[in-house]
Amino acid sequence: MLAKRRSIRDYQEKEVPLNLVKEIIQESCLAPSATNGQPWRFIIINDRELMQRLSNESKQNFLALMDKFPGAASLMYGEFLRNEAYNVYYNAPCLVLIVGRKKHRSLRVDCALAAGYFMFAATARGLGTCWIGLGQMIQSPELRQEIGLPDDHAIVAPIILGYPKSVPSQPSRNSRILKIA
To answer: Distance (Å, rounded) from C-alpha 116 to C-alpha 4?
Structure first.
């Protein structure tokens, strides 16, 4: 099952039932966390108009960051992000934000583990996912309030979810072992 997980960027026009999303979240909560702190919280967004506004916000904020600090990111992402039709969430039917309190010492690692469990649980059910790093760029106080994201929380893992139109083949992987002692 682990070998079947892929980053999916093209989805069927089919909604993911809310009870199925909740089931996947329940399995995600089985992930280990430092001192069993379980700092993760989940925000489910299945309103495509809201997802489009979140996409626009993310693009605007990342473009502003690239203008402030030009470099390789500008070359890689500038053309996509300036395209009004480009949706950072690839028009997926569902977005799940894995979030938590900013002050939690191991927030990023713990939420990343929950995100991994989330993606594998979705794959086991025939769903596709993709972690969208740009989805962390939600800064508008109005949008944060609309999605129920408290001020003291950070978005760690924005993951899109849906039924894939197709699943890409497995790319080659390296074990990356440095040394066995």
So the answer is: 13
Q: What is the DSSP letter of 93?
A: S
Secondary structure of residue 45 in the 3-state scheme: strand
Name all domains of the chain by residue range, CATH numbers in brackets.
Answer: 2-162 (3.40.109.10)
The CA distance from 57 to 118, in Å, is 25
**What are the pLDDT digits (tens) for 163-176?**
999 887 888 888 88
> Sheet holding 128-131: strands in order across?
41-45, 94-101, 153-162, 128-131
Residue 55 tokens read as 């996409």
Tens of pLDDT, residues 38-63: 999 999 999 999 999 999 999 999 88
22-36, 65-79, 90-104, 105-119, range with the lowest pLDDT: 65-79
Measure the CA–CA gap between 94 and 82, rounded to whole angstroms.
23
